[in-house]
Amino acid sequence: MQASSLTHTTGPSSPPPLTTNKVRALLMERGSNLRQFSLRHGYKPRSVQQALERWAGRDSLPLGRLTYRMLQDLSREIGQEIVPGILEEDSEH
Questions:
Q1: Which of 1, 74, 88, 76 is nearest to 34 (CA)?
Q2: What is the pLDDT of residues 39-78, one digit of tens each?
Q3: Whole-angstrom Cα distance, residue 84 to residue 71?
Q4: From the CB of residue 8, how many other CB atoms can be counted at a distance below 10 Å?
Q5: Residue 90 falls within a domain, yes or no?
Q6: Residue 67 forms part of a structural domain
Q7: Containing domain of residue 33, as a range?
Q8: In the chain, how many domains are there?
Q9: Does residue 23 contact residue 48 with C-beta atoms inside 8 Å?
């Protein structure tokens, strides 16, 4: 099998999925970090860390309201969707 057929490619319009480290880097570019973000928004830092580790780069939306809200706030903070569709206005949450 050729090496090119083993790699995952995304469509031309879809950005690469965000990783936990990329989200942390984007926060650092804004002079913040995960802990500061968490405390500023009233979340427990460990809860935000766990939600980010679990959901960054996935294609499906979280079902829990608190996790959804955390990732939505974090996406707004960094200016990119951590999970595709998390910033859509007509979402079910």
A1: 74
A2: 999 999 999 999 999 999 999 999 999 999 999 999 999 9
A3: 11
A4: 6
A5: no
A6: yes
A7: 17-78
A8: 1
A9: no
Which H or E element spans position 18? none
Helix (H), strand (E) at residue 55: helix 45-55
pTM summary value:
0.79
- State phi, psi for 67 to the nearest 5 degrees: -60, -45
Show the tokens assigned to 45: 């830092």
d(Cα 57, Cα 43) in Å, to the nearest integer? 21
Task: Give CA–CA dist 37/24, Å, rounded.
Answer: 10
CB within 8 A of 68, min separation 6: which ones?
61, 62, 86, 93
Residue 47 near residue 65 (C-beta atoms within 8 A): no
CA dist 82 and 58 (Å) reads 8
Q: State how far the Cα of 4 lies from the Cα of 13, in Å rounded to an integer.
A: 20
Place of tokens 């955390």: 70
